[in-house]
Design brief:
Oligomer: single chain
Mean pLDDT: 94
Length: 129
């Protein structure tokens, strides 16, 4: 694993690239206090290490993240964030819907329908539906 300080620096930059300028600071502030370690781990590991690996671009990573969350089910806040991130990195609403539809064969109809409901709300909020 890389140097933790560099991982945090890389993670902040990548998190902001995916979620928008200042997003890492907002996340870390929201998880301050008892959750501060969790916020730092999320930024440094998830975005400084995993999201910064070569081999997949950010669109492909968001497809994988959205599909994973659809299949897990019951994680609508995280799915909302990753659908927004998918739009931020260039996925179209049609591509996101196709990812959700593709997951129905593994996740089942209830999880896919719930995910589609989340996507529709995000698209409406973003004015892309």
């Amino acid at each position: 694993m890389s140097d933790p300080a560099n991982g945090m620096e890389r993670g902040r930059a990548r998190y902001d690239e995916v979620y928008g300028e200042g997003a890492a600071d907002r996340l870390l502030a929201a998880l301050s206090g008892l959750g501060s370690d969790l916020g730092r781990y999320g930024v440094a590991f998830n975005f400084g290490e995993i999201y910064s690996r070569p081999g997949l671009d950010l669109k492909q990573r968001q497809i994988a993240s959205i599909a994973s969350l659809v299949n897990i089910g019951g994680v609508e806040p995280q799915l909302t964030g990753h659908i927004n991130a998918g739009l931020n990195v260039g996925l179209t609403p049609e591509e996101i819907v196709e990812v959700i539809i593709h997951c129905v064969q593994y996740a089942g109809f209830p999880r896919a329908i719930n995910a589609l409901t989340v996507a529709k709300k995000v698209f409406e909020q973003r004015g892309v539906a």
